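Methods — Computational structure assignment.
A single polypeptide chain was analysed. Its primary sequence is given first, followed by the predicted tertiary structure written as structure tokens.
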Amino acid sequence: MKRLVATVLIAASAISLFAERPNMPSSQPFSQIAIYHLTNKNGLSVDVTNYGAIITSIKVPDRNGRIADVALGYNSAEEYMNAASKHYFGAVVGRFGNRIAQGKFTLDGVEYQLAKNDSNTNHLHGGKYGLDKVAWTATPFAEADATGVKLTYRAKDGEEDYPGNMDITVTYTLKDNNDLVVDYQATTDKATPFNPTQHTYFNLKGEGQGNVLDHVLQINAKAFTPIDATSIPSGEIRAVKGTPFDFTKPKAIGRDIEAPDEQLKNGIGYDHNFVLDPEVKENGITKAAFVTEPTTGRTLEVLTTEPGIQFYSGNYLDDKLIGKSGNAFGHRGGFCLETQHFPDSPNHANFPNTILRPGETFSSQTVFRFGVDK
């Protein structure tokens, strides 16, 4: 039987975190933060909170029907709300997901300076208080074959130094066919960069159950965008053939991750944007990636309308964070597949456009499809 239940998430101690940050934006009082439990007829469940539009849990069966939570995350509201956290577990990030070099871009002849919140060098994931650290307005819903929650947020002109008032909607829909659909829509009253993404870390063995190096990954991309030592793209579109970045055929994430390659050195592993092959489609949406975990049989397919996907191999996880299972998230204990436009696009004319203008509507969809390989 399908359930769609909201539970109060925030604690008094968590509310106090925000009293120390009076300039922090929000569309809702933080006392109204809740967690929404979505389930389908197959027993899949997804938990979403309106704080940061964060996915806090994804529970799916293995080939023997055993359920495990495959999304890395925290045990408490306080941990998610701690602005010192740099991992963005489960969050929607933006306005601009990924990096902007030196936090600078020029738009219609005006130069904008954003926060350098990535090692005091580049702008990362929307700044100090991006979309991952605000309270969204939540509207849960139920349909004949799905449950979900619609989240809305107004980002004000000048928020995190971006231009334009933006009305942003993120909708999570869990379907009975085991698709978790993420829909994004946005409008603005001034031209502004916009490039949101979903930042869930996955471990298909279960969160806290070791590293993901034995997961078998395929990415439908013949090219990627090389980066410098600060993870900023050079602007080159480089073929993956003959490099450790060739995932056009399934291979274990760990097979080439320690290869003597300059790009792997720059990313401390995989932390790169892949240029998706748009001809590989299903019902008009690009089939981006497919992951299999051999021991449990759990699978994850990612489909998207976006032109790129950031594959991140959890290089900065370091055993200091304790997950919901009580186990530490070790080095490479999770991977991200962040569908997106390309990093630093406002500074590269040859990259797909990320500027949203008044009168236009940004619309994007990503599907996370769960299954088992029997």
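Note: Residues 10-18 have pLDDT under 50 and may be disordered.
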